[in-house]
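Hi there, hope your week has been kind to you so far. Do you reckon you could talk me through the fold, stretch by stretch? I've dropped the whole record in just underneath, so have a look:
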Amino acid sequence: MAPVTLPSAAESTDRTAVVDLGLKPLSPTQLAWRRFRRHKMAMAGLATLVLLTLYTSLGGMLWSRGYCAPIRATLSGEAWANCNDTSLKLQPPSREHPFGTDVIGRDIFARTIYGGQISLLIGITATILEVLLGTAVGSLAAYHGGWVDSLLMRFTEAMLTIPSLFLLIVTAKFFGGRLPDVILFGRELTGSVLVIILIIGATSWMYLARIVRANVLSLREMDYVAAARALGVSNARIIITHLLPNTFAPIIVSATLGVAGAILSEAYVSFFGLGVQVPTASWGNMLESAYKYLESAPWLWFFPGMFILLTVLSINFVGDGLRDAFDPRTR
């Protein structure tokens, strides 16, 4: 009688799920989404981020602008956040002003809306720059190897020795007030915003570059890469279409965490008065103007601080969920 070979536990489970439930095999993306949905804190963070995005993008439509009624015909958009009435200064939260008013009578609710747009804009654009630089350096170093790898990695290690926060403070101090205003995504921003984006993005790509390099070093020895070379595919196309898509998981995880880091860095320098300059509002410079009123007017720091805390925590939770979701060893 021929011996009977039993299937492994994993094969038995997969086949039972497919046969008994009549399910089609899931794609890697569907498996990652299923793992992500099971991460409760990641789902809570994603929901919080969606609510924060809706708040900063649509909150202005819900905000009552009645207290600026005498000049409301001449104001629109961000100008409402800078509308002031000194007779209403340091008013506690009320029905008319849900988050209270600041030292010159500006509505805190409105300023958290438009300040949130600036903070999120800095975080996202700085992270895009970080991802572009880190991915390019890491993939080129790993794919070409030799002197290219040595040169790029030594440059990366040199960049790691530069204290990014110190450089950000010095650069913001040097260029603060010297650059003209710029229009970015329909918003008029002070030149200091552009400096912050460039410095944060240019000093935070090194860890991502090393992660991408490690992944590409293992992927470039795969058979499909050798087959692409044999067919005469260019190096740029191999990197873009074959190597980087298989390195997408660590890139997306690093990007989510990079947004949180950029928002915190902007808050640091703005708290010192060297970041986003008035009249442009950000959650960071709102904290800078509130530290003198920690006890007498706690609403000045509580609401922008709460939004920074919620945003950073939510992004970190989403990053943790993405890390687990893209891990092929997670069951």
DSSP finds 13 helices and two strands in the chain. The domain at 110-316 is CATH 1.10.3720.10 (MetI-like fold). The CA atoms of residues 32 and 64 lie 42 Å apart. The beta strands are 182-184, 187-189.
